[in-house]
Amino acid sequence: MKVDLNLDQVLSDLDAATALDALQNIIERLRDAFGIDHMVYHWVDSGGEQYGCGTYSQAWVQRYIEQSYLRVDPVITGCLQRFHPVDWKRLDWSSKAARAFLRDALEHGVGNQGYSIPIRGPNGQFALFTISHDCDDETWAEFTCLRGRDLILIAHYFNRKALEFEPARKPEQCSALSPREVDTMTLLAMGYNRAQVAETLSISEHTLRVYIESARYKLGALNTTHAIARAMSRGLIVV
Amino acid sequence: MLRYLYANQLNQYPKLASAMFRDRADQFGTRLGWPVEVDHRGEERDCYDRLDPLYVIWERPDGGHGGSMRFLPTTGPVMVNDVFGHLTGGAPITSPLIWECTRFCLARDAGPNVAAALMLAGGEIMQQFGIRHFVGVFDARMVRIYRAIGSSPEVLGSQGEGRERISVGLWEFSREARDRVARRAGIPPDLSRLWFDRAFGGVAPGQSALSA
């Protein structure tokens, strides 16, 4: 599971996507960038509308629908009405139906490890962003520990983009940077280090980290460098 | 023991849940005089309780409520942005890696170990779920309590004076703070982890159905 340096590029392409069709290509590239077997995105809104894309085989997707696995899949029941990331090992696979489902999933190449991120969107929209892989427990624990936060952010960026294509969508309320966030990103872009930025803005480095975290999310970036580049290309900061 | 319960799991613990909402009415309505809504059973709830939050509750040995707090991700509606946005720099604090912690409540006769136990639970959540910060709303009295248990937030902004003072603050995980609150709570880290795993399922290598 190597780390691809082009992750920022894929996220920029996600940001620039103008049609729902583009998401399939992006999720395949994201999966490759993380070096894992599968990555899947699935949304359901309060009206029952569904959309999904991902890298599972067509045979497994078909099988899942035919068998109505939605009803027995512990990942679904374990993530509904939740907002914490769920390692599949934490779920209850003890029922006969769940174990049969698991065997079938393994036979279809889903992998023995999984990590699902529930996402709560506006107006009852709900989405799941899932990665799965075939490896031992230790390798998986190391991977999710190392990349979990990136995946949580990407899951939300993906959902945000998917929501843009919903016809009745309400405008995003929190995409603008606050004056403090603009100041922070501008000073960082000018080459100040964090201590200097904090000092200049008369805030602690602790508080600064929250401004950066929040700005990074609004900009759809995984790291500060990427966030600065994004802010500059969008004309949000001028250096 | 510490219980981690989403709103839709509270019905499995009706007595505990009811006691939590009554202690909230007592703390925020009776003692602090906040304009909170209390129903005919004496229970305090606000609109954020309807958003399926995650509650962390200290359950006493007799099953009663010792203290509690409530979490919601800042990617959705949260009090710090909806009500106290003017205290945090002018635009919403929003990230899936920042959760809001509100309604930090202690029963009248709760000892200082209860507040520490709740903060210990906060540390578990940060570590296990990859959360970088909690942002919270708290009253003047809590400043002393947080300091006493060794987990002081960084204050982003405040309004009001004296007892009326309400602040928005930030917590970040540190191993030192975790060890301090664990000592204050009198809870060994392994026991804390056991309670967490009981709520969310364990991930002990080699014991899962998935690797069987």
CA(first)-CA(last) distance of chain B: 31 Å
**Rg estimate of chain B, integer Å:** 17 Å
Q: Summarize the biggest pleated sheet of chain B.
A: 7 strands, mixed
Q: Which spans of chain A of ≥5 residues are poorly predicted at pLDDT below 50? A: none
End-to-end C-alpha gap of chain A: 37 Å
Would you tell me the overall average pLDDT of chain A?
A: 90
From the 3D coordinates, which CATH architecture of the largest domain in chain A would you assign? 2-Layer Sandwich
- CATH first level of the largest domain in chain A: which class? Alpha Beta
Please give the share of residues in helix of chain B: 25-40%
CATH topology of the largest domain in chain A: Beta-Lactamase
What report would you give on this structure?
Chain A is α+β, with helices and mostly antiparallel strands. Chain A has two domains: 158 residues, Beta-Lactamase (2-Layer Sandwich), CATH 3.30.450.80; 55 residues, Winged helix-like DNA-binding domain superfamily/Winged helix DNA-binding domain (Arc Repressor Mutant, subunit A). Chain A contains ten helices and five strands. In chain A, strand 1 and strand 2 form a beta hairpin. Chain A is elongated, with a radius of gyration of 19 Å. With 212 residues, chain B is α+β, with helices and mostly antiparallel strands. Chain B has one domain: Gcn5-related N-acetyltransferase (GNAT) (Aminopeptidase). In chain B, 34% of the residues lie in helices and 23% in strands. Chain B contains six helices and seven strands. In chain B, a hairpin with a 5-residue loop joins strand 2 and strand 3. In chain B, helix 3 packs antiparallel against helix 5. Chain B is globular and about 45 Å long. The mean pLDDT of chain B is 91. Chains A and B meet through helix 5, strand 4, helix 6, helix 7 and helix 9 of A and loops of B.
Could you outline the blueprint of secondary structure elements for this entry?
The complex is a heterodimer of chains A (239) and B (212).
Chain A: H1 7-16, H2 22-34, E1 38-44, E2 50-54, H3 58-66, H4 74-79, E3 86-87, H5 96-107, E4 113-120, E5 126-133, H6 137-164, H7 179-189, H8 194-200, H9 205-219, H10 224-233
Chain B: E1 2-6, H1 14-31, E2 54-59, E3 65-73, H2 79-82, E4 98-106, H3 112-129, E5 133-139, H4 140-148, E6 154-159, E7 166-172, H5 175-185, H6 189-200
Parallel strand pairs in B: 4-5
Antiparallel strand pairs in B: 1-2, 2-3, 3-4, 5-7, 6-7
Helix pairs in contact in B: 3-5
